[in-house]
Amino acid sequence: MANFYTDNKDLKFHLYHPLMEKIVRMKERNFSEKEKFDFAPMDYEDAMDSFDKVLEVVGEISGDIVAPNAESVDAEGPLVVDGRVVYARGTKQNIEALNQAGLMGMSLPRRFGGLNFPIVPYIMAADVVSRADAGFVNIWGLQDCAETINEFASEEQKEKYLTRVCQGETMAMDLTEPDAGSDLQAVQLKATYDEKSGVWLLNGVKRFITNGDGHISLVLARSEPGTKDGRGLSMFIHDKRNGGVTVRRIEHKMGIVGSPTCELVFKDAPGELVGSRKLGLIKYVMALMNGARLGIAAQSVGVSEAAYREALSYAKERMQFGKAIMRFPAVYEMLSNMKAKLDASRTMLYETARFVDVYKTYMHISEERSLDQVERNEMKSYQKLADFYTPLVKGMSSEFCNQLAYDAIQIHGGSGFMKDYPVERIYRDARITSIYEGTTQLQVVAAIRGVTTGVFLDQIRKYEAEKLSPELEYLRRALIILTDEYEQAVHKVMAVHENEFLDFHARRLVEMAGYIIMCYLLVLDSNREPAFLKSAKNFLNLAKAQVKAHSEFIRSSELSDLGVYKYEME
Predict the structure, then answer these.
(1) Type and span of the H or E element at 410
(2) Pairing between strand 319-320 and 261-273?
(3) Which domains does the chain have, with CATH numbers?
(4) How much is the pLDDT for 183?
(5) Residue 154, C-beta contacts closer than 8 angstroms, at least 6 positions apart
(6) C-alpha dihedral over 359, 43, 162, 111, to 10 degrees?
(7) How far apart are CA 564 and CA 551, in angstroms?
(8) What is the pTM of this model?
(9) 166, 266, 365, 552: least surrounded by Cβ within 10 Å?
C-alpha cells in the first residue's frame, strides 16, 4: 500500500503553516456553518484534521491506483470515437476512484456539495496527484475552472453547474485557437445572440484544448461584431449535454499522453453568458489563467517530486566500480541540488497559495458584507502579492521541473533513455510545464512588474526582518548581500528609461528576485523545521551563482549592446 501524502512529511509541514489559522477562520466565517452542515468543522483543529484525512485519501488513491495506471495510460492514450473522447482504461479507473472519494469540488462551497477547502489543501492534492501521473491531473485538476463560475456567474448558473462539478463532472477551458495562442485578443470564435430562442450560439474552432470533451466548458468568444481586440470578447458556459461541439482530433503529443488535447468544432453550440459582455478576456480569463498557472506550478512540483524520488532510488541501487553510484560526488551533488530545487519550488508554491487564499476569501466576504478599511487594505496587499507570485512560481517551478527531469535521466544513464523506467515518461511529461498556460517568457512579462513596482523587494525586506534562531543568522547575512546585488541591478536597468532594455533583462531580474525569495522561504522553513537546513544551504549556493552571474551581466551591459543580439532579425 503506497500513500503519496503520508510518505512525504514536507506536505504536512506546509499544510500546518502559521498563516493557515487565519485562512481557515476566514474561509469558515469563524465556523458559522457547523450548525447547518454535519460535516462542517467545529473549530480550527477540526478543520485541519479534515484536510489531513482527505489528503490521506488523495495520497492513497494516487499511490495505489493513479501511479500504477500511469504507464498503461501513457501507452494506450485516449481516442476519438464519433466526435467524442474515450479515455484510456486507467484514466477511467482514476476518475471513478477520485469521484467515489468525493474529491471533486474540493474548494467549492458546501451548499453546492463541495468541501469548502481553502486553496492550500486543494493545491496540495494537485501536487500529490501530479507525482502519480502528470497527465491525469490535467483532467481531475480542471475542477479549478469552477472557481471562475463561483466568482463571476449568476446564482442560477452556480446552482446548475457547480453542483454537477461536485458530483464528479469534468471541466475544460476553451481559449486557444489556431491563430490565437498566447495572443488571446485574436480569438475569433463567434458568439451570436439568437433573438428568437433567446440563446447565444457559438461557431468556430478551438485548438489545443485540454480535456476538450469535458462535461462543462468555459469558452472565450467574440460577442461584439466588428471588434478585433480583447474588448470584444465575452465568456460563455457550454454544456456538453446541449450538443453543438464535436472533437475533430486529439493531438499526438510528446508527453502527458493520457490528457486529451483536443481540436473542437463549434456549430451553433448553445452558450450561457458569464457575467457581463466584453469582460471575457479583460477580467474573467485573467482570473481563470491565474488559477491555472498555480495549478501548473503544483503539477511542476509533483513531477519534480517524482523525478527526484526515481533518481534517488536508482542511485542507491545502481552499483558501479564496487559501490552505489550515489556515493560518487558527481552524483550526490546532482541529487542534493535536485532536492534543494524541489524544496524551493514547493515552499514558494504554498506561499503563493496562501496569498491567493487570503485575497480570494476577502473577495468572497466582500460580496456578503462591506469590508472595513483594514480588511480592504489587507485584501489589496494580498491580491498584489498573489498576482505577482503566481507567474513567478509558475515560471521558476516549471523550469526547475524540467531540470530535475533532465538530471533524473542523467543519473539513470542509458537506462533512463529506455521505456523500462518511469523517468522516460516523467521527462516527456515535464517538458510541457514551462510551455502551457503561458510560456516561461510570458510569465516573465507578467512578473516583471513585481520588480519594477518594488513589490518583490518589499516582500524580501519583510522576510529579512523575520525573527530567526542565531544559528541561521549567517544565511540572512548572505541573503542581504544578494538582495543588494539585486537592488543595484534593478536600479541600473530602470535608470536607462528604455522599455526594450528592461524587456531584454526582464528574465534575469525576475530570476534574481525568485532565487532570493525562495532562499528566504527555505531559511524560514528551517527556522520551523531544521530538516530543511540542508536544502536552504544548497539552494543558497545555487542562488549566489545565479544572482551574481545575472548581476555581472547587467552591470556590464549597455543599451547599445542589444544590437549584437539582433543580427538574426536583419
Answers:
(1) helix 373-412
(2) unpaired
(3) 9-166+282-434 (1.20.140.10), 172-277 (2.40.110.10), 453-565 (1.20.120.470)
(4) 86
(5) none
(6) -130
(7) 19
(8) 0.96
(9) 552
Q: Which distant-in-sequence residues (6+ apart) come within 8 Å of 91 by Cβ?
A: 69, 73, 78, 136, 139, 258
In the prediction, which pLDDT does 564 show?
84
Structural element, H or E, at residue 349: helix 329-366
Element (H, E) at 404: helix 373-412
* Phi and psi at residue 481, to the nearest 5°: -65, -45
**Angle value at C-alpha 56, between 50 and 58, nearest 5 degrees:** 105
pLDDT per residue over 74-120, tens digit each?
Answer: 999 999 999 999 999 999 999 999 999 999 999 999 999 999 999 99
- Grid coordinates of 370: 462591506
Give the span between the Cα atoms of 144 and 140, in whole angstroms.
9
**Neighbour-count burial of 546, counting CB atoms closer than 10 A to its CB (0-12 exposed, 13-18 middle, 19+ buried):** middle
- Tell me the CA distances in angstroms from 300 to 13, 307, 328, one per residue in order: 19, 10, 28
Nearest to residue 101, comparing CAs of 78, 67, 125? 125
Residue 332, C-alpha cell as written in the block: 550526490
Q: Are 341 and 10 in contact (CB under 8 A)?
A: no
Beta strand spans in 458-547 (E): none
| Residue 260, phi-psi category: left (phi > 0), alpha (psi -120 to 50), beta (remainder) | beta
Q: How many CB atoms lie within 10 A of CB 376?
A: 13
**pLDDT, averaged across the chain:** 96
Nearest partner of 389 among 360, 338, 441, 354, judged by Cα: 354
The residue-averaged pLDDT of 444-460 equals 98
Q: Using 50, 70 and 90 to split pLDDT, how confident is the model at 567? A: low
Q: Which residues contact 266 (CB under 8 A, 6 or more apart)?
A: 189, 202, 203, 204, 205, 206, 219, 238, 244, 245
